[in-house]
Specification:
Mannose-Binding Protein A, Chain A, 37% helix, elongated, binds calcium ion
Length: 196
C-alpha cells in the first residue's frame, strides 16, 4: 500500500509538470529510476498480496466443502472412480451424500481438475447431472439450466437413445450423450457449506 501511495504521489506530481518546465526538482533520469524502483516495489507488493489472497481462498474452500467433497472453482465435488453405476444409480448415490450429480459452473474447469487431481486414472467417462427429457431434445442440468452448446464434444450429442450426459476426461469440450443404463464412473456435487 505504501508503494502504491508513493507511486500515485509521484505520478500526480509529474502529471502536473509541463514538459520542459523549470520547476522539476530532479533531473529526468533520476525521476525515471525512482519510478522504476517504485514500479518494482508495486509489482512485488501485488505479487505478495495475490499469493496471500489465494492461500486464504484455498483454506476457506477446504473448510467450505463437507468431506468427501473437495473444493474446485468455488464449488464442491466428489469424484467416484471406483464403482461403475448407471446414471440413475449414480444420482441416487450422490443424493445419499446430500448432493446430486455434478452441475459444474464451468465444465472444462471440472475436466481440468480431473486431469490434475487424478493423473493416473484411466477412466474416461464420468456421469454428470445433465440429461434430456423424453419428448424434445432439451438438454438440461439437474437445476433446470440448459446445457451450453459450447460444452459438447465434437459431433455431440449424437445418439438416438443416449439421453444422459458424461464428462469425457480426455476431450475438450468435454460433454457426451450416452445411454443412461451404461455403467460408468461419476461425479457428485454438494452445496458449499455456509460457515456460521
Ligand atoms: Ca454420444
Amino acid at each position: 500500500m505504501i508503494a502504491i501511495k508513493a507511486l500515485v504521489e509521484l505520478l500526480t506530481e509529474d502529471g502536473g509538470a509541463a514538459a520542459g518546465a523549470g520547476d522539476a526538482k530532479k533531473p529526468e533520469g533520476e525521476q525515471e529510476s525512482e519510478l522504476a524502483a517504485l514500479m518494482k516495489d508495486l509489482a512485488s507488493a501485488v505479487r505478495n498480496n495475490t499469493k496471500a489472497l489465494l492461500t486464504t481462498m484455498e483454506e476457506k474452500e477446504e473448510l467450505q466443502c463437507a468431506p468427501p467433497f473437495f473444493a474446485a472453482g468455488g464449488e464442491c465435488f466428489y469424484v467416484n472412480n471406483r464403482k461403475r453405476l448407471t446414471w440413475v444409480e449414480a444420482q441416487t448415490f450422490c443424493r445419499g451424500l446430500g448432493g446430486d450429480l455434478a452441475e459444474p459452473d464451468r465444465v472444462n474447469m471440472l475436466r481440468a481438475v480431473l486431469l490434475q487431481k487424478y493423473p493416473a486414472d484411466e477412466n474416461q467417462f464420468f456421469w454428470v447431472g445433465a440429461s434430456v427429457n423424453g419428448t424434445g431434445k432439451a438438454w438440461k442440468w439437474v437445476s433446470g439450466r440448459n446445457v451450453s452448446r459450447g460444452d459438447w464434444g465434437t459431433d455431440q450429442p449424437d445418439g438416438g437413445n443416449e439421453n444422459c450426459v458424461v464428462l469425457s476426461r480426455d476431450e475438450f469440450p468435454a460433454l457426451h450423450d450416452s445411454p443412461c443404463y451404461t455403467q460408468t464412473m461419476f461425479i457428485c456435487e454438494k452445496a458449499v457449506v455456509i460457515p456460521n
